[in-house]
Amino acid sequence: MTLQQGAAQDRTVAALVHLSIFLNFLVLLSGVIAALVVALLYRDRSAFVARHAFQSLAFQVGMGLVGALVVAFAAALWVGAFLAWMPWILASPGGPPGAPAPLPWIVGLFMWALVMGLMLLGAALLVLAIVLPIAGAVRAHRGEEFDYPVVGRLVPSWWYSSGR
Predict the structure, then answer these.
(1) Contacts of 156 (CB under 8 A, 6+ apart)
(2) Where are the domains of the chain?
(3) Which of 39, 117, 125, 155 sits between 20 and 30 A of 56, alpha carbons compared?
(4) How does pLDDT run across 28-48, given as a tens digit for each residue?
(5) pLDDT tens-digit profile of 115-154?
(6) For residue 96, what is the DSSP state?
(7) How far is the C-alpha of 62 from the C-alpha of 66, rounded, in Å?
């Protein structure tokens, strides 16, 4: 294998490791495991591939954590809205004694607005989870470096350099 063939192979592997995030849609955490395996296998072989693999790994873990937090918070709001409305649903049409009638609607609209905001945030995160890895794959296939926003700068260089 010539040097050019090796460089082309490295670019291809680096591009594919960015696209490994799409494996998570099939089997949970499979993209993370694939990026970790590539990162560890190429750590001493190719700093270029290892760097892209660790970038992809950091992005996938970061997006997974943020996505889980958004889903958990939205679920908590749904449960909170249900529990906040329950006394008014079970009681008379005017609500519990002494409570103003519009209060459940104000609480409900506030909870609804928060949940809709979280759904928009989740949709934006999904778009980023699709667009950024594709951009990373294109840049890697061209032989260029690529850092993901926010998490990309958190990956220390000693993760992907073997000290050579």
Answers:
(1) none
(2) 8-159
(3) 117
(4) 899 999 999 999 999 889 989
(5) 889 999 999 999 999 999 999 999 999 999 999 998 877 7
(6) S
(7) 6
Q: What is the pTM of this model?
A: 0.80
- Calculate the alpha carbon distances from 115 to 75, 78, 84, 126, 129 in Å: 9, 7, 14, 16, 21
Residue 30 vs residue 159, higher pLDDT: 30
Q: Report the alpha-carbon distance of residue 75 to residue 16 in Å, rounded.
A: 34
Nearest to 14 by CA among 6, 26, 25: 6
Q: Using CA atoms, how far apart are residues 56 and 132, in angstroms rounded to an integer?
A: 10
Q: Which residue has the tokens 């002494």?
A: 98
Say how far apart CA 96 and CA 98 lie, in whole Å: 6
Q: CA angle at residue 31 from 136 to 54, to 5 degrees?
A: 55
The letter for the amino acid at 111 is M
Tokens of 130: 């699709």
Share of the chain above pLDDT 90, in %: 54
CA 66 to chain centre: 6
Q: Comparing C-alpha atoms, which of 44, 37, 48, 41 is closest to residue 14?
A: 48
